[in-house]
Amino acid sequence: MHFVGARTRRLHRWRALAVTVGLLLASTWAAVVLAPVRADEGASVAETADEGKRPAYTVTIEGVEDGGLSDLLERSSQLIALKDNAPASEAGLVRRITDDLERFRIVLRAEGYYDSTIEYRIDRTAIPANITVVIDTGRGYRLTHYDVTFSDGSSPDSSGPTTQPSAEPIPPPPPPPPLSNLGLKLDARVRSAEILMAEKRIFAALADAAYPFAKLIDRRVVVDHRDQSVSVDVAIDPGPFCRFGAVSFVGLIGVHEWYVRSLVPWKEGEPYDQRKVDAFRGTLAKSGLFSSVVVNPAKTIADNGTVPISVETIEGNQHSIGAGAKYYTSEGPAGEVFWEHRNMFGASEDLRITLEVGQIRQQATVDVIKPDVYRPEQDLLGEVKATRQKTDAFDELGASILAKIRRPLSEHWTGSAGGSLEWSQLNNDEDGTITSTLLGIPGTLERDTTDDPLDPRRGMRLRVDETPYTGWSDQAAHFLVSSVGASSYLPLSENKRYVLATRAKIGSIVGASRGDIPSNKRLYGGGGDSIRGYEFQKVGPLDDSEKPLGGRSLFEASAELRAMVWGNLGLVPFVDAGQIYTPVVPDFSENLQWAAGLGLRYLTVVGPVRVDFAFPLNPREHVDDLFQFYIGLGQAF
Length: 637
Hints:
Elements: E1 18-21, H1 26-34, E2 57-62, H2 67-76, H3 78-81, H4 90-110, E3 117-123, E4 129-136, E5 142-150, H5 156-159, H6 179-182, H7 192-208, E6 215-224, E7 229-237, E8 243-250, H8 257-262, H9 274-286, E9 290-297, E10 306-315, E11 319-328, E12 332-341, E13 350-358, E14 361-370, E15 379-390, E16 395-408, E17 413-428, E18 432-440, E19 443-448, E20 459-473, E21 476-491, E22 498-510, E23 553-566, E24 569-581, E25 593-604, E26 607-616, E27 628-633
Helix pairs in contact: 1-4, 2-4
Protein backbone atom coordinates (compact mmCIF):
# COMPACT_ATOMS: atom_id res chain seq x y z
CA MET A 1 0.00 0.00 0.00
CA HIS A 2 1.44 3.39 -0.97
CA PHE A 3 0.59 6.90 0.05
CA VAL A 4 1.30 9.76 -2.37
CA GLY A 5 4.65 11.42 -1.67
CA ALA A 6 7.69 12.98 -3.30
CA ARG A 7 10.83 10.83 -3.53
CA THR A 8 12.99 12.53 -6.18
CA ARG A 9 16.58 11.47 -6.05
CA ARG A 10 19.50 13.30 -7.71
CA LEU A 11 22.43 11.65 -6.01
CA HIS A 12 25.06 13.12 -8.38
CA ARG A 13 24.61 16.63 -6.94
CA TRP A 14 27.07 17.35 -4.16
CA ARG A 15 24.35 18.97 -1.97
CA ALA A 16 22.09 15.93 -2.26
CA LEU A 17 22.52 13.42 0.46
CA ALA A 18 19.98 10.67 0.83
CA VAL A 19 21.01 8.64 3.79
CA THR A 20 19.23 5.55 4.92
CA VAL A 21 19.06 5.73 8.68
CA GLY A 22 17.23 3.90 11.40
CA LEU A 23 14.52 6.03 12.93
CA LEU A 24 15.63 7.68 16.13
CA LEU A 25 13.41 5.82 18.56
CA ALA A 26 11.87 7.62 21.46
CA SER A 27 13.13 4.78 23.63
CA THR A 28 16.71 5.41 22.46
CA TRP A 29 16.33 9.09 23.24
CA ALA A 30 15.00 8.24 26.68
CA ALA A 31 17.93 5.91 27.28
CA VAL A 32 20.36 8.67 26.41
CA VAL A 33 18.53 11.26 28.46
CA LEU A 34 18.35 9.02 31.48
CA ALA A 35 21.91 7.73 31.19
CA PRO A 36 23.96 8.43 34.30
CA VAL A 37 26.39 11.33 34.10
CA ARG A 38 30.04 10.24 34.07
CA ALA A 39 32.22 11.13 36.99
CA ASP A 40 33.90 14.47 36.40
CA GLU A 41 37.66 14.49 36.08
CA GLY A 42 40.40 17.07 35.59
CA ALA A 43 42.02 19.92 37.39
CA SER A 44 40.05 21.53 40.18
CA VAL A 45 38.20 24.75 39.56
CA ALA A 46 39.44 27.53 41.78
CA GLU A 47 37.14 27.88 44.75
CA THR A 48 35.81 31.26 45.74
CA ALA A 49 37.95 32.73 48.45
CA ASP A 50 35.11 33.90 50.66
CA GLU A 51 32.84 30.85 50.45
CA GLY A 52 35.17 27.90 49.84
CA LYS A 53 32.37 26.16 47.90
CA ARG A 54 32.11 24.73 44.40
CA PRO A 55 30.80 27.27 41.90
CA ALA A 56 27.17 26.95 40.77
CA TYR A 57 25.92 28.00 37.34
CA THR A 58 22.80 28.99 35.44
CA VAL A 59 21.67 27.68 32.06
CA THR A 60 19.94 29.62 29.27
CA ILE A 61 18.67 28.05 26.04
CA GLU A 62 18.23 30.53 23.19
CA GLY A 63 16.83 30.29 19.68
CA VAL A 64 13.93 27.90 20.34
CA GLU A 65 10.52 29.54 19.94
CA ASP A 66 8.42 26.36 20.15
CA GLY A 67 7.37 26.04 23.78
CA GLY A 68 6.84 22.29 23.51
CA LEU A 69 10.28 21.76 22.00
CA SER A 70 11.83 23.98 24.64
CA ASP A 71 10.26 21.85 27.37
CA LEU A 72 11.62 18.66 25.78
CA LEU A 73 15.12 20.12 25.63
CA GLU A 74 15.01 21.27 29.23
CA ARG A 75 13.76 17.89 30.45
CA SER A 76 16.58 16.11 28.60
CA SER A 77 19.28 18.41 30.00
CA GLN A 78 21.65 17.13 32.66
CA LEU A 79 23.09 20.64 32.85
CA ILE A 80 19.77 21.88 34.16
CA ALA A 81 19.05 18.81 36.29
CA LEU A 82 22.44 19.07 38.03
CA LYS A 83 22.86 22.85 38.12
CA ASP A 84 22.85 22.83 41.93
CA ASN A 85 25.59 20.18 41.93
CA ALA A 86 28.50 21.87 40.19
CA PRO A 87 31.25 19.68 38.66
CA ALA A 88 34.59 19.48 40.41
CA SER A 89 36.55 20.93 37.51
CA GLU A 90 36.41 23.09 34.42
CA ALA A 91 36.93 19.99 32.29
CA GLY A 92 34.02 18.31 34.04
CA LEU A 93 31.78 21.27 33.26
CA VAL A 94 32.79 21.24 29.59
CA ARG A 95 32.17 17.49 29.43
CA ARG A 96 28.75 17.98 30.96
CA ILE A 97 28.00 20.65 28.33
CA THR A 98 29.16 18.52 25.38
CA ASP A 99 27.13 15.57 26.65
CA ASP A 100 24.10 17.85 26.78
CA LEU A 101 24.70 19.05 23.23
CA GLU A 102 24.46 15.46 22.00
CA ARG A 103 21.25 14.98 23.94
CA PHE A 104 19.87 18.13 22.36
CA ARG A 105 20.77 16.85 18.87
CA ILE A 106 18.89 13.62 19.56
CA VAL A 107 15.84 15.54 20.75
CA LEU A 108 15.97 17.85 17.72
CA ARG A 109 16.24 14.96 15.27
CA ALA A 110 13.38 13.17 17.04
CA GLU A 111 11.31 16.33 16.50
CA GLY A 112 12.17 16.53 12.80
CA TYR A 113 15.08 19.00 12.89
CA TYR A 114 17.86 17.14 11.05
CA ASP A 115 19.86 20.22 10.04
CA SER A 116 20.22 22.04 13.34
CA THR A 117 23.32 23.74 14.71
CA ILE A 118 24.16 24.14 18.38
CA GLU A 119 26.75 26.39 20.00
CA TYR A 120 27.48 27.32 23.57
CA ARG A 121 29.34 29.93 25.53
CA ILE A 122 30.30 30.28 29.18
CA ASP A 123 30.23 33.64 30.91
CA ARG A 124 32.70 33.13 33.75
CA THR A 125 32.43 36.76 34.85
CA ALA A 126 28.84 36.26 35.96
CA ILE A 127 28.12 35.11 39.51
CA PRO A 128 27.11 32.39 39.28
CA ALA A 129 28.60 31.46 35.93
CA ASN A 130 26.14 31.45 33.05
CA ILE A 131 26.05 28.83 30.31
CA THR A 132 24.17 29.91 27.20
CA VAL A 133 23.22 27.29 24.61
CA VAL A 134 22.30 28.82 21.24
CA ILE A 135 20.26 26.57 18.96
CA ASP A 136 19.37 27.12 15.34
CA THR A 137 16.81 24.41 14.67
CA GLY A 138 16.80 24.96 10.93
CA ARG A 139 13.76 23.99 8.94
CA GLY A 140 11.71 21.06 10.13
CA TYR A 141 11.90 18.08 7.77
CA ARG A 142 8.58 16.99 6.25
CA LEU A 143 7.07 13.53 5.99
CA THR A 144 6.60 13.02 2.25
CA HIS A 145 6.07 9.26 2.05
CA TYR A 146 4.72 6.58 4.39
CA ASP A 147 4.19 3.01 3.24
CA VAL A 148 3.09 -0.12 5.14
CA THR A 149 3.63 -3.57 3.69
CA PHE A 150 2.31 -6.80 5.16
CA SER A 151 4.50 -9.84 4.68
CA ASP A 152 3.34 -13.18 3.30
CA GLY A 153 3.62 -14.70 6.75
CA SER A 154 0.04 -13.92 7.68
CA SER A 155 -1.38 -17.36 6.91
CA PRO A 156 -1.38 -20.18 9.46
CA ASP A 157 0.73 -22.25 7.04
CA SER A 158 3.73 -19.96 7.48
CA SER A 159 3.51 -18.47 10.97
CA GLY A 160 0.93 -20.36 12.98
CA PRO A 161 -0.88 -23.63 13.45
CA THR A 162 -2.07 -25.50 10.41
CA THR A 163 -5.53 -26.26 11.82
CA GLN A 164 -8.43 -24.03 12.78
CA PRO A 165 -11.49 -25.01 14.84
CA SER A 166 -13.83 -23.80 12.12
CA ALA A 167 -14.20 -24.66 8.47
CA GLU A 168 -14.88 -21.03 7.72
CA PRO A 169 -12.38 -19.42 5.36
CA ILE A 170 -9.68 -17.43 7.09
CA PRO A 171 -10.01 -13.74 6.24
CA PRO A 172 -6.86 -11.91 5.16
CA PRO A 173 -5.41 -9.17 7.33
CA PRO A 174 -7.21 -5.85 7.00
CA PRO A 175 -5.55 -3.15 4.91
CA PRO A 176 -3.40 -0.68 6.83
CA PRO A 177 -5.44 2.16 8.31
CA PRO A 178 -5.40 5.48 6.43
CA LEU A 179 -2.86 8.04 7.51
CA SER A 180 -5.51 10.10 9.28
CA ASN A 181 -6.26 7.12 11.56
CA LEU A 182 -2.57 6.69 12.26
CA GLY A 183 -2.10 10.27 13.41
CA LEU A 184 0.13 11.12 10.46
CA LYS A 185 -0.14 13.77 7.79
CA LEU A 186 1.94 14.11 4.66
CA ASP A 187 3.94 17.31 4.26
CA ALA A 188 3.82 17.86 8.04
CA ARG A 189 6.92 17.96 10.21
CA VAL A 190 8.02 14.44 10.99
CA ARG A 191 8.28 13.36 14.63
CA SER A 192 9.73 10.08 15.86
CA ALA A 193 7.06 9.66 18.52
CA GLU A 194 4.30 9.98 15.91
CA ILE A 195 5.94 7.39 13.66
CA LEU A 196 6.18 4.95 16.56
CA MET A 197 2.60 5.67 17.63
CA ALA A 198 1.44 5.01 14.07
CA GLU A 199 2.97 1.54 14.28
CA LYS A 200 1.20 0.88 17.56
CA ARG A 201 -2.09 1.85 15.92
CA ILE A 202 -1.41 -0.56 13.07
CA PHE A 203 -0.78 -3.35 15.57
CA ALA A 204 -3.98 -2.38 17.44
CA ALA A 205 -6.01 -2.51 14.21
CA LEU A 206 -4.63 -5.96 13.46
CA ALA A 207 -5.39 -7.18 17.00
CA ASP A 208 -8.96 -5.93 16.61
CA ALA A 209 -9.25 -7.95 13.38
CA ALA A 210 -8.06 -11.30 14.82
CA TYR A 211 -4.32 -10.81 14.25
CA PRO A 212 -2.97 -10.18 17.78
CA PHE A 213 0.56 -11.52 17.14
CA ALA A 214 1.72 -9.04 14.53
CA LYS A 215 5.35 -8.00 14.71
CA LEU A 216 7.61 -5.47 13.07
CA ILE A 217 9.93 -6.88 10.42
CA ASP A 218 11.65 -3.72 9.24
CA ARG A 219 11.43 0.03 9.41
CA ARG A 220 13.33 1.92 6.72
CA VAL A 221 13.71 5.66 7.09
CA VAL A 222 15.30 7.81 4.39
CA VAL A 223 16.27 11.38 5.22
CA ASP A 224 16.81 13.52 2.13
CA HIS A 225 18.81 16.60 3.10
CA ARG A 226 18.46 18.02 -0.39
CA ASP A 227 14.73 18.76 -0.10
CA GLN A 228 14.50 18.33 3.67
CA SER A 229 12.12 15.40 3.45
CA VAL A 230 11.70 12.06 5.20
CA SER A 231 10.20 8.87 3.79
CA VAL A 232 9.26 5.84 5.88
CA ASP A 233 8.67 2.25 4.77
CA VAL A 234 7.39 -0.23 7.34
CA ALA A 235 7.18 -4.00 6.89
CA ILE A 236 4.95 -5.93 9.30
CA ASP A 237 4.24 -9.62 9.70
CA PRO A 238 0.55 -9.82 10.75
CA GLY A 239 1.06 -13.29 12.19
CA PRO A 240 -1.65 -15.96 12.23
CA PHE A 241 -5.40 -15.46 12.21
CA CYS A 242 -6.62 -16.23 15.76
CA ARG A 243 -9.83 -17.12 17.52
CA PHE A 244 -10.82 -16.80 21.15
CA GLY A 245 -9.91 -19.82 23.24
CA ALA A 246 -10.96 -21.03 26.67
CA VAL A 247 -11.27 -18.53 29.53
CA SER A 248 -9.88 -19.47 32.94
CA PHE A 249 -10.29 -17.64 36.26
CA VAL A 250 -7.99 -17.27 39.25
CA GLY A 251 -8.78 -15.53 42.54
CA LEU A 252 -12.57 -15.85 42.73
CA ILE A 253 -13.69 -16.49 46.30
CA GLY A 254 -16.96 -14.81 47.16
CA VAL A 255 -17.91 -14.04 43.56
CA HIS A 256 -19.43 -16.90 41.57
CA GLU A 257 -17.47 -17.93 38.48
CA TRP A 258 -20.67 -18.42 36.47
CA TYR A 259 -21.51 -14.76 37.02
CA VAL A 260 -18.12 -13.45 35.90
CA ARG A 261 -18.19 -15.83 32.96
CA SER A 262 -21.58 -14.43 31.95
CA LEU A 263 -19.92 -11.03 31.51
CA VAL A 264 -17.46 -12.31 28.88
CA PRO A 265 -18.48 -10.46 25.68
CA TRP A 266 -17.30 -13.18 23.27
CA LYS A 267 -17.85 -16.87 22.64
CA GLU A 268 -15.11 -19.43 22.34
CA GLY A 269 -14.19 -19.87 18.69
CA GLU A 270 -15.09 -16.33 17.63
CA PRO A 271 -12.43 -14.33 15.76
CA TYR A 272 -10.15 -12.62 18.26
CA ASP A 273 -10.92 -8.94 18.93
CA GLN A 274 -8.75 -6.96 21.35
CA ARG A 275 -11.54 -4.41 21.84
CA LYS A 276 -13.69 -7.07 23.48
CA VAL A 277 -10.83 -8.04 25.79
CA ASP A 278 -10.38 -4.41 26.83
CA ALA A 279 -14.13 -3.98 27.34
CA PHE A 280 -14.27 -7.10 29.54
CA ARG A 281 -11.38 -5.80 31.64
CA GLY A 282 -13.21 -2.48 32.05
CA THR A 283 -16.46 -4.19 33.04
CA LEU A 284 -14.74 -6.13 35.82
CA ALA A 285 -12.84 -3.06 37.02
CA LYS A 286 -16.04 -0.97 37.21
CA SER A 287 -18.04 -3.68 39.00
CA GLY A 288 -16.68 -2.66 42.41
CA LEU A 289 -16.04 -6.32 43.26
CA PHE A 290 -12.29 -6.42 42.68
CA SER A 291 -9.30 -4.45 43.87
CA SER A 292 -7.20 -5.86 41.04
CA VAL A 293 -8.13 -7.22 37.62
CA VAL A 294 -5.67 -8.66 35.09
CA VAL A 295 -6.96 -10.12 31.83
CA ASN A 296 -4.10 -11.94 30.09
CA PRO A 297 -4.35 -13.30 26.55
CA ALA A 298 -1.82 -16.07 26.02
CA LYS A 299 1.51 -14.95 24.56
CA THR A 300 1.39 -17.65 21.88
CA ILE A 301 -1.36 -19.20 19.82
CA ALA A 302 -2.55 -22.70 20.70
CA ASP A 303 -2.27 -25.60 18.27
CA ASN A 304 -5.95 -25.29 17.37
CA GLY A 305 -5.56 -21.64 16.36
CA THR A 306 -7.10 -20.14 19.50
CA VAL A 307 -5.81 -17.72 22.12
CA PRO A 308 -6.59 -18.85 25.70
CA ILE A 309 -7.49 -16.04 28.11
CA SER A 310 -6.65 -16.08 31.81
CA VAL A 311 -8.40 -13.75 34.25
CA GLU A 312 -6.64 -13.04 37.54
CA THR A 313 -8.58 -11.12 40.18
CA ILE A 314 -8.21 -10.02 43.77
CA GLU A 315 -11.55 -9.43 45.44
CA GLY A 316 -11.97 -6.13 47.22
CA ASN A 317 -13.86 -5.21 50.35
CA GLN A 318 -17.52 -5.78 49.56
CA HIS A 319 -19.01 -4.19 52.67
CA SER A 320 -19.15 -0.54 53.65
CA ILE A 321 -20.80 1.70 56.18
CA GLY A 322 -21.07 5.45 56.10
CA ALA A 323 -22.73 8.51 57.51
CA GLY A 324 -23.58 12.02 56.40
CA ALA A 325 -25.05 15.17 57.84
CA LYS A 326 -26.44 18.50 56.67
CA TYR A 327 -28.02 21.61 58.09
CA TYR A 328 -30.47 23.93 56.33
CA THR A 329 -31.91 26.96 58.14
CA SER A 330 -35.56 26.21 57.33
CA GLU A 331 -35.26 22.42 57.57
CA GLY A 332 -32.99 22.08 60.56
CA PRO A 333 -30.32 19.43 61.02
CA ALA A 334 -30.49 16.03 59.35
CA GLY A 335 -28.23 13.03 59.27
CA GLU A 336 -28.11 9.62 57.68
CA VAL A 337 -26.27 6.34 58.14
CA PHE A 338 -26.05 3.47 55.70
CA TRP A 339 -24.77 -0.08 55.42
CA GLU A 340 -23.98 -1.63 52.06
CA HIS A 341 -23.13 -5.10 50.76
CA ARG A 342 -21.96 -5.10 47.13
CA ASN A 343 -22.01 -8.87 46.57
CA MET A 344 -24.97 -10.10 48.57
CA PHE A 345 -25.52 -13.42 46.80
CA GLY A 346 -22.25 -13.84 44.92
CA ALA A 347 -23.30 -12.22 41.63
CA SER A 348 -22.65 -8.52 42.36
CA GLU A 349 -26.06 -7.92 43.92
CA ASP A 350 -25.99 -4.64 45.83
CA LEU A 351 -27.97 -4.24 49.06
CA ARG A 352 -28.02 -0.87 50.79
CA ILE A 353 -29.94 0.05 53.93
CA THR A 354 -30.21 3.75 54.75
CA LEU A 355 -31.68 5.47 57.78
CA GLU A 356 -32.29 9.23 57.60
CA VAL A 357 -33.28 11.25 60.65
CA GLY A 358 -34.04 14.94 60.45
CA GLN A 359 -36.19 17.62 61.96
CA ILE A 360 -38.64 17.44 59.04
CA ARG A 361 -38.28 13.89 57.76
CA GLN A 362 -37.46 10.46 59.13
CA GLN A 363 -37.03 7.75 56.53
CA ALA A 364 -35.81 4.16 56.23
CA THR A 365 -34.90 2.82 52.78
CA VAL A 366 -33.81 -0.57 51.49
CA ASP A 367 -32.33 -0.54 47.97
CA VAL A 368 -31.43 -3.64 45.97
CA ILE A 369 -29.67 -3.74 42.60
CA LYS A 370 -29.47 -6.96 40.61
CA PRO A 371 -27.01 -6.34 37.76
CA ASP A 372 -26.89 -7.82 34.28
CA VAL A 373 -30.47 -9.05 34.17
CA TYR A 374 -31.08 -10.85 30.86
CA ARG A 375 -28.28 -8.88 29.23
CA PRO A 376 -25.01 -7.18 30.25
CA GLU A 377 -25.31 -3.76 31.91
CA GLN A 378 -29.06 -4.09 32.36
CA ASP A 379 -29.95 -3.77 36.04
CA LEU A 380 -33.05 -4.57 38.06
CA LEU A 381 -33.59 -1.97 40.80
CA GLY A 382 -35.84 -2.48 43.80
CA GLU A 383 -36.67 -0.10 46.64
CA VAL A 384 -38.76 -0.33 49.79
CA LYS A 385 -39.25 2.86 51.78
CA ALA A 386 -41.03 3.98 54.94
CA THR A 387 -41.41 7.73 55.51
CA ARG A 388 -42.63 10.09 58.18
CA GLN A 389 -42.41 13.82 57.53
CA LYS A 390 -43.91 16.97 58.96
CA THR A 391 -43.71 20.13 56.85
CA ASP A 392 -45.62 23.40 56.66
CA ALA A 393 -47.42 22.02 53.59
CA PHE A 394 -48.51 18.62 54.94
CA ASP A 395 -47.86 15.82 57.39
CA GLU A 396 -47.20 12.36 55.93
CA LEU A 397 -46.91 8.81 57.15
CA GLY A 398 -46.25 6.55 54.20
CA ALA A 399 -44.66 3.49 52.62
CA SER A 400 -43.76 2.62 49.05
CA ILE A 401 -42.31 -0.14 46.91
CA LEU A 402 -40.61 0.34 43.56
CA ALA A 403 -39.15 -1.96 40.89
CA LYS A 404 -37.67 -0.92 37.57
CA ILE A 405 -35.23 -1.89 34.84
CA ARG A 406 -32.30 0.41 34.04
CA ARG A 407 -29.97 0.07 31.10
CA PRO A 408 -27.52 2.22 29.11
CA LEU A 409 -28.81 3.24 25.71
CA SER A 410 -25.46 4.55 24.46
CA GLU A 411 -22.22 5.90 25.89
CA HIS A 412 -23.92 8.83 27.62
CA TRP A 413 -27.64 7.96 27.60
CA THR A 414 -29.40 5.83 30.24
CA GLY A 415 -33.05 4.85 30.45
CA SER A 416 -35.19 3.22 33.12
CA ALA A 417 -38.83 2.18 33.50
CA GLY A 418 -40.83 0.22 36.04
CA GLY A 419 -43.70 0.27 38.46
CA SER A 420 -44.42 1.61 41.96
CA LEU A 421 -47.04 1.25 44.66
CA GLU A 422 -47.35 4.05 47.25
CA TRP A 423 -49.51 4.34 50.35
CA SER A 424 -49.69 7.59 52.33
CA GLN A 425 -51.74 9.03 55.16
CA LEU A 426 -51.74 12.80 54.64
CA ASN A 427 -52.93 15.70 56.71
CA ASN A 428 -53.06 19.41 55.87
CA ASP A 429 -55.23 22.41 56.64
CA GLU A 430 -56.90 22.40 53.21
CA ASP A 431 -57.91 18.72 52.93
CA GLY A 432 -57.85 17.44 56.49
CA THR A 433 -56.73 13.81 56.82
CA ILE A 434 -56.91 11.57 53.76
CA THR A 435 -55.42 8.25 52.69
CA SER A 436 -53.77 7.99 49.29
CA THR A 437 -53.00 4.78 47.42
CA LEU A 438 -51.31 5.23 44.05
CA LEU A 439 -49.96 2.93 41.37
CA GLY A 440 -47.28 4.56 39.23
CA ILE A 441 -45.24 3.72 36.14
CA PRO A 442 -42.06 5.80 36.49
CA GLY A 443 -39.85 6.32 33.46
CA THR A 444 -36.56 8.22 33.28
CA LEU A 445 -34.22 9.23 30.46
CA GLU A 446 -30.80 10.63 31.39
CA ARG A 447 -27.79 11.98 29.53
CA ASP A 448 -24.55 12.62 31.42
CA THR A 449 -21.26 13.81 29.94
CA THR A 450 -19.78 15.22 33.16
CA ASP A 451 -16.38 14.29 34.52
CA ASP A 452 -17.31 13.78 38.19
CA PRO A 453 -20.57 12.83 39.94
CA LEU A 454 -20.04 14.97 43.07
CA ASP A 455 -17.94 17.82 41.68
CA PRO A 456 -18.50 18.15 37.92
CA ARG A 457 -16.24 20.63 36.16
CA ARG A 458 -16.96 19.84 32.54
CA GLY A 459 -19.92 18.47 30.60
CA MET A 460 -23.70 18.48 30.72
CA ARG A 461 -26.55 16.61 32.37
CA LEU A 462 -30.11 16.15 31.15
CA ARG A 463 -32.88 14.29 32.97
CA VAL A 464 -36.46 13.68 31.84
CA ASP A 465 -38.95 12.09 34.27
CA GLU A 466 -42.46 10.91 33.39
CA THR A 467 -44.69 9.12 35.92
CA PRO A 468 -48.38 8.46 35.30
CA TYR A 469 -50.34 7.71 38.49
CA THR A 470 -53.68 6.08 39.05
CA GLY A 471 -55.38 5.19 42.30
CA TRP A 472 -57.43 6.63 45.12
CA SER A 473 -56.94 9.76 47.20
CA ASP A 474 -60.25 10.63 48.87
CA GLN A 475 -61.58 9.99 45.37
CA ALA A 476 -60.32 8.45 42.13
CA ALA A 477 -57.05 10.05 41.08
CA HIS A 478 -55.42 9.93 37.65
CA PHE A 479 -52.62 12.33 36.73
CA LEU A 480 -49.21 12.57 35.05
CA VAL A 481 -46.15 14.13 36.72
CA SER A 482 -43.47 15.34 34.29
CA SER A 483 -40.20 17.19 34.70
CA VAL A 484 -37.20 18.13 32.58
CA GLY A 485 -33.97 19.30 34.19
CA ALA A 486 -30.63 20.23 32.64
CA SER A 487 -27.31 21.50 33.96
CA SER A 488 -24.05 22.49 32.30
CA TYR A 489 -20.49 22.91 33.56
CA LEU A 490 -18.10 25.11 31.60
CA PRO A 491 -14.45 25.32 32.71
CA LEU A 492 -13.09 28.85 32.42
CA SER A 493 -9.46 27.85 32.93
CA GLU A 494 -7.32 25.03 31.62
CA ASN A 495 -6.89 23.49 35.07
CA LYS A 496 -10.67 23.69 35.65
CA ARG A 497 -10.30 25.61 38.91
CA TYR A 498 -12.84 28.14 37.63
CA VAL A 499 -16.14 26.70 36.43
CA LEU A 500 -19.38 28.35 35.34
CA ALA A 501 -22.26 26.07 36.37
CA THR A 502 -25.85 26.62 35.29
CA ARG A 503 -29.08 24.68 35.61
CA ALA A 504 -32.76 24.91 34.73
CA LYS A 505 -35.80 22.78 35.53
CA ILE A 506 -39.41 22.79 34.44
CA GLY A 507 -42.15 20.56 35.85
CA SER A 508 -45.83 19.93 35.22
CA ILE A 509 -48.78 17.86 36.49
CA VAL A 510 -51.65 17.22 34.10
CA GLY A 511 -54.89 15.27 34.42
CA ALA A 512 -56.25 16.59 37.72
CA SER A 513 -56.95 19.85 39.51
CA ARG A 514 -54.64 20.91 42.29
CA GLY A 515 -57.18 19.91 44.95
CA ASP A 516 -57.49 16.40 43.49
CA ILE A 517 -53.74 15.81 43.56
CA PRO A 518 -52.45 14.39 46.87
CA SER A 519 -50.47 17.06 48.70
CA ASN A 520 -47.27 14.97 48.70
CA LYS A 521 -47.36 14.81 44.88
CA ARG A 522 -47.82 18.53 44.20
CA LEU A 523 -44.89 20.66 43.13
CA TYR A 524 -43.10 22.88 45.67
CA GLY A 525 -40.15 25.28 45.54
CA GLY A 526 -37.66 26.71 48.00
CA GLY A 527 -34.88 25.24 50.10
CA GLY A 528 -31.26 24.20 49.79
CA ASP A 529 -31.93 21.76 46.95
CA SER A 530 -34.32 24.06 45.09
CA ILE A 531 -34.36 27.87 45.27
CA ARG A 532 -31.86 28.93 47.91
CA GLY A 533 -32.69 32.00 49.96
CA TYR A 534 -36.28 30.89 50.60
CA GLU A 535 -37.73 28.55 53.18
CA PHE A 536 -38.36 24.91 52.33
CA GLN A 537 -41.49 24.64 50.09
CA LYS A 538 -42.37 28.33 50.68
CA VAL A 539 -42.09 29.54 47.05
CA GLY A 540 -45.46 29.49 45.29
CA PRO A 541 -49.12 29.73 46.34
CA LEU A 542 -49.77 30.13 50.09
CA ASP A 543 -52.97 29.88 52.11
CA ASP A 544 -54.23 32.50 54.54
CA SER A 545 -51.90 31.12 57.20
CA GLU A 546 -48.93 31.45 54.82
CA LYS A 547 -48.63 27.68 54.47
CA PRO A 548 -47.63 26.24 51.06
CA LEU A 549 -50.44 24.92 48.88
CA GLY A 550 -48.22 23.51 46.15
CA GLY A 551 -48.89 23.81 42.46
CA ARG A 552 -49.12 22.01 39.14
CA SER A 553 -46.14 23.56 37.39
CA LEU A 554 -42.64 24.64 38.32
CA PHE A 555 -39.76 26.65 36.94
CA GLU A 556 -36.29 26.91 38.50
CA ALA A 557 -32.94 28.28 37.32
CA SER A 558 -29.51 28.75 38.89
CA ALA A 559 -26.06 30.01 37.95
CA GLU A 560 -22.83 29.66 39.93
CA LEU A 561 -19.20 30.67 39.45
CA ARG A 562 -17.18 27.97 41.20
CA ALA A 563 -13.74 29.41 41.86
CA MET A 564 -11.05 27.44 43.70
CA VAL A 565 -9.09 30.41 45.00
CA TRP A 566 -6.66 28.79 47.41
CA GLY A 567 -5.71 25.11 47.46
CA ASN A 568 -8.80 23.09 48.35
CA LEU A 569 -10.81 26.16 49.34
CA GLY A 570 -13.20 27.79 46.89
CA LEU A 571 -15.67 30.66 46.67
CA VAL A 572 -19.00 30.33 44.85
CA PRO A 573 -21.14 33.41 44.12
CA PHE A 574 -24.54 32.28 42.86
CA VAL A 575 -27.99 33.40 41.73
CA ASP A 576 -31.18 31.31 42.01
CA ALA A 577 -34.66 31.99 40.67
CA GLY A 578 -37.94 30.13 40.43
CA GLN A 579 -41.68 30.00 40.97
CA ILE A 580 -44.55 27.53 41.46
CA TYR A 581 -47.74 28.00 39.46
CA THR A 582 -51.30 26.65 39.68
CA PRO A 583 -51.77 26.11 35.88
CA VAL A 584 -50.34 22.95 34.33
CA VAL A 585 -47.56 24.90 32.60
CA PRO A 586 -45.62 27.88 33.98
CA ASP A 587 -47.42 30.99 32.74
CA PHE A 588 -45.13 33.40 34.62
CA SER A 589 -48.20 35.26 35.89
CA GLU A 590 -46.36 35.51 39.19
CA ASN A 591 -42.94 37.12 39.35
CA LEU A 592 -39.99 34.83 39.83
CA GLN A 593 -38.54 34.73 43.33
CA TRP A 594 -34.88 35.74 43.02
CA ALA A 595 -32.04 35.10 45.43
CA ALA A 596 -28.30 35.65 45.45
CA GLY A 597 -25.59 34.45 47.73
CA LEU A 598 -22.04 33.40 48.37
CA GLY A 599 -20.82 29.92 49.15
CA LEU A 600 -17.67 28.25 50.39
CA ARG A 601 -16.40 24.91 49.10
CA TYR A 602 -13.75 22.72 50.67
CA LEU A 603 -12.61 19.72 48.64
CA THR A 604 -12.34 16.39 50.44
CA VAL A 605 -11.77 12.83 49.25
CA VAL A 606 -15.53 12.18 49.37
CA GLY A 607 -16.54 15.37 47.60
CA PRO A 608 -16.78 19.09 48.31
CA VAL A 609 -18.19 20.32 51.61
CA ARG A 610 -20.73 23.04 50.79
CA VAL A 611 -21.56 26.11 52.90
CA ASP A 612 -23.98 28.60 51.30
CA PHE A 613 -25.42 31.92 52.47
CA ALA A 614 -28.41 33.02 50.36
CA PHE A 615 -30.42 36.24 50.45
CA PRO A 616 -33.83 36.77 48.81
CA LEU A 617 -33.69 39.67 46.36
CA ASN A 618 -37.43 40.30 46.19
CA PRO A 619 -38.69 38.98 49.53
CA ARG A 620 -42.40 38.85 50.27
CA GLU A 621 -43.47 40.92 53.25
CA HIS A 622 -44.03 38.89 56.43
CA VAL A 623 -43.15 35.68 54.55
CA ASP A 624 -39.45 35.50 53.71
CA ASP A 625 -36.56 35.73 56.15
CA LEU A 626 -33.52 37.94 55.69
CA PHE A 627 -31.27 35.03 54.69
CA GLN A 628 -30.96 31.25 54.61
CA PHE A 629 -27.93 29.15 55.53
CA TYR A 630 -27.01 25.70 54.17
CA ILE A 631 -24.33 23.11 54.98
CA GLY A 632 -24.04 19.85 53.05
CA LEU A 633 -21.83 17.49 51.05
CA GLY A 634 -21.54 17.83 47.29
CA GLN A 635 -22.24 20.72 44.98
CA ALA A 636 -25.69 22.32 44.94
CA PHE A 637 -26.24 20.76 41.51
